[in-house]
Structures are given as C-alpha cells and as structure tokens.
Amino acid sequence: MTTATEHRHAWFPASPCDASCVRAQAAGVGRLRMTLRVCALLLVVGYLVLTVVFVLPTPRVVRRRYLRSVARMLLGAMGIHIVIDDRRPFPAHARGLIVANHVSFLDVLAIASVSPAHFVAKSDVMEMGAVSALARALGVIPVDRGSLRKLPSSVDTVVEALHRDKCAAVFAEGTTWCGRSSGRFRPAFFQAAIDAGVPVLPMTLEYTDIDGKVCTAPAFIGDDEVDDTMGRVLAQRSMTVTVVVHELQLPVPDRRYLATRCEELVFGIRPDELGPIVVADPERPYVHALAG
User: Fold this and answer.
1) pLDDT tens digits for 144-177?
2) Cα separation, 286 vs 188, whole angstroms
3) Which of 17, 142, 271, 283 is disulfide-compatible with 123, CB 3.0–4.6 A?
4) What is the pTM of this model?
5) How far apart are CA 216 and CA 42, in angstroms?
6) How far is Cα 33 from Cα 22, in angstroms, rounded to an integer?
7) CA count, 13 A, side-chain hemisphere, 59
8) Going by C-beta distance under 8 Å and a sequence separation of 6 or more, which residues neighbour residue 264?
9) Beta strands 239-245 and 200-209: pairing type?
10) Calpha distance 222→21 (Å, rounded)
C-alpha cells in the first residue's frame, strides 16, 4: 500500500495491484461468528498489552517463544490456520536474514509464528494505531521508502539487529502485492546479510481460502486502510496461510545474486522468467547504487 504523502523517487517500490485484485467471496461468515472473532482478537491483544512488559526483560529464548505463541494466537483469533512447510534438509530454529514475498501486514504474524525477528517495514506502519503497538512489540525496524539517502543507515540498522539477535526479516519486494502476482526482489537489504556474515533464509507466504484457492482477502493494497483488510479477513469462512521455509543461502558477496536466487526459491521460477524491476520513474533507472 502507498500513502499519498510518500515522496516518489525513481526506485520507489511500485505495485500495480488495486481493489480489482481483491476477489469477493461467495459466502462469508455470519455476524455472530464475526463478532466472536473480534472478541477473541481483542482478548489476545489485551493479553499482549498486559504481558509484554514482563517478557521484554527476559532472555532472548523466552521472548522468542512468547512472540511465536502470541503470533499464532492472533492468527487463530482471526480464523486463520497456519501450515508450516519446512523444506530445509535439517530443520532448526531460523537464524539470519529472512526474506519473503509481501501480501499483507499479517505476513509479520505468519513469519513470527515460525521465527520471531526484527522486521523491516515502511515507517508509517508505526503510526497505525493498534498495528503500531504490535509492530513495536515485534521489534519492527522502520524504513522511509521515500528517501534513498536514508537507505544505507536502514541497512546498517538491520546489520546491528542481526549482530544483536541473529534474526531479522525483510520483504524484499518493497511493497505489498495481492498474492496472485508478485514483484522483483530489491537487492539493497541483502547487503545486510553480507555485512553481518549471516545466511539468508527465504520464505514463501501463501494465503488460501476454504477451497484451497489463492485468497486475496488479506492483501493490503491500493487505497486499503487497516480496517478494510481486517474486515475482509474476519469475514472469511476459513483461511490458511502456508509458510514455506526454503534452504539457507550462504551470504556470498553479491547482493544481486542473492536476490535473484531467493526469487527463484520464493516464487518457484527460473531466472529467465523473472520480469523487470518496476520503478516509479522508468526514465531514471539506477539512480542509487545500493537500491539496485
């Protein structure tokens, strides 16, 4: 989603997805079940508010277990089932730079259900009311998408997070897509894995409806506000988010190679099938070395 106040430069993350991408569901839940979901969600949020201050001073292993549990509780309260498909040869706790496709602000909960991390998100997320509180609890790292000059310092912040907690997550497309289509991975934040000397862990997020088809209801796109997306999510009869955990990628000193390799894994496509990176101003490409 893009706000009207954001400054657009040539490398501003752009997505063609809009309201037309959101498929209306033939049959939603009744008013009673939707009310129960809202109540359950409020109870979990209340639990988070009351307990997070006691958990923050605890050892990292306790905090991670707590955040993983809360993330799953929040998804469950909204009627979202989570399926984890771990394809690593030797599954273990995730450590390193997590990169994933981006559909919704719910992606943070889906990934945190597998591995809590410091998430990189656009700065205006910190101003979204209840979402802001959750973002702070999950250790979100805000990034100003409208300022290329601030990008190197944002990458440095991710490096510090990787050194400190060994786990950070970035949505490398730079903006949200509807789930039926996707964008190219921007290489910038892959530099953080190289500088920190940690592996990259690609993840694929897919939302499906009760019939097993791709569900666009959670998409946070176009002119959507948080309430719009939440309304669609809470009205679904049943929804599943599948988190596919791919094999670790070593931090070779080439962020563009890492970005391309992770695209292949996350989207299940060959390099020759990758389209061009969408830029806000096609007449001014490659205006910033780190962005490209």
Assistant:
1) 766 667 788 889 999 999 998 889 999 999 888 8
2) 12
3) 142
4) 0.84
5) 24
6) 22
7) 2
8) 270, 271
9) antiparallel
10) 9
